[in-house]
Amino acid sequence: xxxxxxxxxxxxxxxxxxxxxxxxxxxxxxxxxxxxxxxxxxxxxxxxxxxxxxxxxxxxxxxxxxxxxxxxxxxxxxxxxxxxxxxxxxxxxxxxxxxxxxxxxxxxxxxxxxxxxxxxxxxxxxxxxxxxxxxxxxxxxxxxxxxxxxxxxxxxxxxxxxxxxxxxxxxxxxxxxxxxxxxxxxxxxxxxxxxxxxxxxxxxxxxxxxxxxxxxxxxxxxxxxxxxxxxxxxxxxxxxxxxxxxxxxxxxxxxxxxxxxxxxxxxxxxxxxxxxxxxxxxxxxxxxxxxxxxxxxxxxxxxxxxxxxxxxxxxxxxxxxxxxxxxxxxxxxxxxxxxxxxxxxxxxxxxxxxxxxxxxxxxxxxxxxxxxxxxxxxxxxxxxxxxxxxxxxxxxxxxxxxxxxxxxxxxxxxxxxxxxxxxxxxxxxxxxxxxxxxxxxxxxxxxxxxxxxxxxxxxxxxxxxxxxxxxxxxxxxxxxxxxxxxxxxxxxxxxxxxxxxxxxxxxxxxxxxxxxxxxxxxxxxxxxxxxxxxxxxxxxxxxxxxxxxxxxxxxxxxxxxxxxxxxxxxxxxxxxxxxxxxxxxxxxxxxxxxxxxxxxxxxxxxxxxxxxxxxxxxxxxxx
Length: 623
Fold this sequence. Notes:
The structure is a single chain. By secondary structure, the protein is of the alpha/beta class. The chain is 51% helix and 12% strand. It has helices at 13-18, 21-48, 61-87, 92-114, 120-123, 126-143, 156-169, 179-208, 235-246, 259-292, 312-316, 319-328, 351-357, 360-365, 376-381, 403-420, 435-441, 455-465, 469-477, 492-502, 520-531, 574-581, 591-604; strands at 210-215, 221-227, 306-310, 340-345, 366-370, 389-393, 426-430, 449-451, 505-510, 534-539, 548-550, 553-554, 557-558, 566-571, 612-614, 620-622. Strand 7 (426-430), helix 17 and strand 8 (449-451) form a beta-alpha-beta unit.
């Protein structure tokens, strides 16, 4: 460089001898020869062995772990090069760490070849090249009598990019960020790694200087020497030069000092400007693709299921879909059990559907695909072949004269989906009970169909087992009956209060010490007044069967609460419920252990729970 700053670390005389072209070129010759040997061996192996083991293989958790570990190790190798650029002397301790890291690289690339039966196509990749390169360079450092501190371990920055993209394709980041955020993170990482790579190459070219070939009288090359090395440069200076140059600011205060660096700077400017321009264009195109539904779904590595939802409820984005997703993706469920949800519609997202997609649930768990169940390409973008289930939801908010057309459309979508993917379980939500016969005619199992009136029999059965529960369920279910957003303004206040109350859900919890010895109704009034949480039921003791008793009535008597009693509450969220009952445990699932322990104790005592026996005269009583 042409700057006059000489505050950088001055290398010793031994370090001058280590940073020579002869040693660096020998190092590179070993690395490229090793990679060529790997290619030859795998090419021979592929030619003389069967490829029957080369079936499609889905990456598993071991692949994810190795990729993440590779990112960490490669980052460590990058920091080692930064340390070497500061120390500028060969250190045995640093080499020992490099040997440890190279051992992992060797295991990683051998495993990658082994699982693909040492296929030549796998060997001839950048992943294998950078692994073999790192192992060979470090081996040269260990066994060569002329090691050098100028070891290009910064090449692992490209491996970080490769591994990050692998992890992203595995769906690892899908549990933490949306597709646009993942792509933006990839672009930032690319900018950092490519900038670091360019800066490190420039640093090496400045330290080594230009090459002078020594020839004898016959024109044969007898040696290599260095001309005009710039030992005053630093890695930070080179990083500054790269950023200023690629950002097109170009202050001109720093310029390459060697001919080789000037040539490299030309390549860097052309490739760098094109690279960063393409990254910006790719992010904009991805955002437009996702907004229009033309993207592609990638399954998350840490989700247990993947379901597809389509139908009139999806197209309209009605309250039916929103409430279905709220229940399916309820926060009380463990994150690992929440499924990936793919919404599919032939039409572009309307206002209602955009509201669903931009909600907290939509951004975290939902992907929209614009397509038709008749199109194989659209189903492939939704990864329908690997889906665990499909739901075809009719829009319960349609006008009465449109219910028949809505059911017909729902049945048609389900029929098309079953013909394309016969093994995919499909469930339908229909508006009219007699539409099941239409579904049967279309070849759909009526047991896979649910109608708005099918819950009546279930509510009747529940009335026998738990008095009062059907009223609660009917009230909660009635919010599916329609969208009241079009009502006159005079009616909106009570509608808002109604929907607010319907946002509450049932949670389990254990009573805290503050309510020990307090009657159930007194505790229920206090909890509702202070926390807006309804106390619904309490679990009886083992000698009473361990049942859930509504309103705290056990054996005709009002129950007196004790610390640790399991209660069921209706509240806005689990944190508020735990705070309301004064639970000593803040874990939302802690009550389950006590609940099942009481049930088990009741079973051991021989007390049957909720068993009905025939009484004289044909009546039924609790046993």
